[in-house]
Design brief:
The structure is a homodimer. Chain A is an alpha/beta fold. Chain A has a domain at about 1-215 and about 260-290: NAD(P)-binding Rossmann-like Domain (Rossmann fold). Chain A contains 13 helices and 14 strands. A 7-stranded parallel β-sheet of chain A has the order 3-2-1-4-5-8-12, with helices on both faces. In chain A, β6 and β7 form a beta hairpin. Chains A and B meet through α6, β6, β7 and α7 of A and α6, β6, β7 and α7 of B.
Chain lengths: ~400, ~400
Amino acid sequence: MRVFIAGVDGYLGWPLAQYLAARGHNLGGIDCQLRRRLVVEAGGESAIPVAPIQDRLTAFRECFGEELAYCNGDLLDYDILLSAIDSFQPDAVVHLAEIPSAPYSMKGPAEAAFTQQNNVIGSLNLLWAIKTAAPEAHLVKLGTMGEYGTPNLDIPEGFFEVEFRGRRDSLPFPRQAGSFYHWSKVYDSHNIMFACHIWGLRATDVMQGIVYGVSVSSDLRLCTRFDYDAEFGTIINRFCCQVVIGHPLTVYGSGRQQRSFLPLEDCLHCLTLALENPPGKGEYRVFNQFDRFTSMRELASMVQEAATRLGIHTEIRHLENPRQEKEDHYYNPDRQHLTALGYSPHINPQEQIAFMIEKLLPWKDHIVTRRSVLIPEIQWDGSRRLATQLDTRGIP
Amino acid sequence: MRVFIAGVDGYLGWPLAQYLAARGHNLGGIDCQLRRRLVVEAGGESAIPVAPIQDRLTAFRECFGEELAYCNGDLLDYDILLSAIDSFQPDAVVHLAEIPSAPYSMKGPAEAAFTQQNNVIGSLNLLWAIKTAAPEAHLVKLGTMGEYGTPNLDIPEGFFEVEFRGRRDSLPFPRQAGSFYHWSKVYDSHNIMFACHIWGLRATDVMQGIVYGVSVSSDLRLCTRFDYDAEFGTIINRFCCQVVIGHPLTVYGSGRQQRSFLPLEDCLHCLTLALENPPGKGEYRVFNQFDRFTSMRELASMVQEAATRLGIHTEIRHLENPRQEKEDHYYNPDRQHLTALGYSPHINPQEQIAFMIEKLLPWKDHIVTRRSVLIPEIQWDGSRRLATQLDTRGIP
């Protein structure tokens, strides 16, 4: 299969390209290295050094014996995007080329606007490019479980049957996102659903949980990035870096908020399941993609235990929550579509986390110099102040 | 009350400024005259000539004895917008500054992207500017009944009570828009709801039906524009221009599609009701704003009869539908919020339409020269071809 990855230089894009190449697929992709720049702007840096894109591409060729057809370009530039899709003629397009940070999107008017513009218009351009140059291609789009928010209902996969005043319909499940970033993903979902409907495109919209994990390659050029700053690092990855440098695990608020999670390896496996089992023409399907859901607090305990087994003592510290979100809520998302395609979670999270900590230990000095980026300062009210420690005696 | 109108040079903005000034309110506004440019690009022109903005402002001062505090600027320019809001210090902001055309948004990738960028980012900038410079101000935002699409359920006002697998919640009513333009309005609605929630802003999101009507002033500088081209003209206004030049009334498809409608005068009255009865701090409310709903076909008959009474014979012609939409569907939207505030529809549409036709007759020669813009050529599949006549024998 010819698979084109938008965002191929990113945390998920780079290992996905290799995962798919190892299965014999032909790879192409586009990236403008925005993620690299935004992390630097946030004062962060990947814990595991990221090779320049040209070195990555060289390593890819050495490892898989063929080129990754790479285009250095921005999805906001429609002509470049169209030409890349047109010349590669993909059977499938995986779209990972978005700004993925909730805090960044809440930083101020410019960042909020840039996040929504970059994500929504980039995705819209991709829809037009697929329609124009590869209308049979299957779009696999990375959304987020955060699109749903935390309704007081089970969370189905995209759609649900509604009865209202005695009449029935099957409707998109209402979204209640929690940041301008999360809303940008909702808007993508709507545009994609609409494009499938009017143009007969086929798409899988992946509502993904929070991914954690490191690359396993010994060739650094093939390793993926690993961010731990408060803007672009995700929670388990940040916890692991905190363990490595002896920093307390920082939990926002009570930590009773529940979220869905997924090891990096499962993410690659699930995206491949979607790719290798495409929907029919005109079909728009939504997959909830996660391995388990749990509270932030339980997560911190899990990381703490994994650290203890490695002989590293780690404390848990609660910080003032910079986000505006419900900390006590019902949470019960469905996950049947991927299971029906054969996905069966089997990774033990504690073992995985221990493995990550071991892989990160060599980069300890690297991380310690930037330890200040571990603490959030972007508040959801648009102000900036470092989150202070909460008195945990008040937390039930 | 100090009311700031974004889009004050537009079809609704200009008469609204006068309506509010006549009630003793102080007016300010911003516009970048995008609508004027887009109509010209579409090959159209207002049937009733539009005075330059400076002449309009002069007439406003002469008529109401005070200045309209006008800023020539684009909502996409955050600094200009912020400074305009900051210096005017509004009690309320009416946001009408969006690209309002479904066909324009379906024309091609550039127009789709521009519509969503202009509308979504413009509105997002406005939210940040209000939060920053006038956080107590009441935002009245023009949305569209088209955000809802045509679900097989009654359409409530924004939210509904859901029971799902034995649990209950009050959730945003799912939106199913029919063009990239209509989706841009949905995205605005979500961003506004979120801003009210996290920042404590107050907003009324107006899901408005299709407006029809002309200005009544004898001073041309005070009259509003009147578009009839297939991109920016709305259906009843276009029908009236067709009557005036003896062109058949062009109905898309079977004409059984139902939509909500509203005379211009009622639109001004309803927006004023919203303004003069603001929501509480942090409250996001949705008003469905229309006077009646009916099918396109009944509408054409209504216009035909109004024309007949004026002694003008008019035919009805069905064209191939350039849109992708359900033509047979359930349609029953609520309209309780405005009624509760005192709105009571009383305008006879046929009399109103006859009045419009009479007002347009002096501009007949004007309209006839651009008669070609009456026929749609933008297809929802992204192609361009003039809609051809349907054989009505096939239409039940």
